[in-house]
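Standup notes, structure subgroup. Blocker cleared on the alpha-D-ribofuranose input:
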Amino acid sequence: MSTIRDVSKQAGLSIATVSRALSTPEKVSPESLKRVQAAIEKLQYRPNMLSQKFRYNSANSIVVLVPNIANLFFSTVISGIENVAQKRGFNVLLGDTRDSMQREQEFVHLVETRQADGLIQLRPYKANNSLLPKAHVTAVNASGCENTPYPTVRIDNVAAAQEVMRYLISLGHKRIGMISGLKDNPHAIDRMRGYKAALAEAGIEFDPALVTEGDFTLWSGLNASGHFSRMPTPPTALFCMNDEMAIGAIKGLKSKGFRVPEDISVTGFDDLEFAKYSDPALTTIAQPAGKIGEKAAELLFQLLDGTHEGSTEFVLPYEFVIRQSTGPAPQQQN
Ligand code: RIB
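Run returned:
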């Protein structure tokens, strides 16, 4: 186990400067801070002050890591986090990582070196691609997926997708296409499970030709819709794994002469603010994005304060919102 003395030697700085870098980094020059960070990294030093029991100077900030700030779902989660953080007098340091592990590492490091107190990760957990959980980093995953091995706040993505599919099947649809998110995305994996479960339960065979991949953006939905509009027998309904792709798909389908929902029903997932303004208004799953953010921040503060008791997994209710983008399956195509 290395000590603060080892860090000071390695960094070529006094113990007092190293200690200041840990407790009040804003009072240390950027150059010294860099040297301390490099030394800590090299020696894998973990200051005692990180122990939950030790009273340390709070940095009064938390880090929020987001894979894509441009997605309105994530910005709504962040605004929920902000509400709680502001009440606590904490700043939110935003890390728009664009899925870069290098960027994530830099932000995790801020917590390790006490420049921030804790962290909320919005990217769903993937075993082969996650820096968390990590010793001495208090973290919560917001909007995660099943089997996240650290504190998490999420909805049941499998059940939600299954509910949408059951509804489409109840309207008489049997050929139901899907625009998936990137296939190794844990949300996409959970939602695909729901899609398949509903088909199986209705005795409809899963057809891989009816599944195409997007990346959760408007453009990818528009692009993916071409796959279906070119089919000799297009599906009569389309389950899209988020609203952005659904709205993109509606635009693409309409441009090819399809009527929504008369020829093809389309569903989304998220209930973004503009889902009700889409033409036609979108049938979708309303995720409680703001509440997910608030709950995640409350949980993080409880963990930091050492006041949390009981389970650290919170599955919040979602709502299924039926609007005008879905209707009965057209008889002639079934
Ligand atoms: O990764 C993007 C998607 O995952 C969002 O649109 C939302 O559905 C989230 O769960």
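Discussed briefly. The longest helix spans residues 289-305.
Next: hand off to the docking folks.
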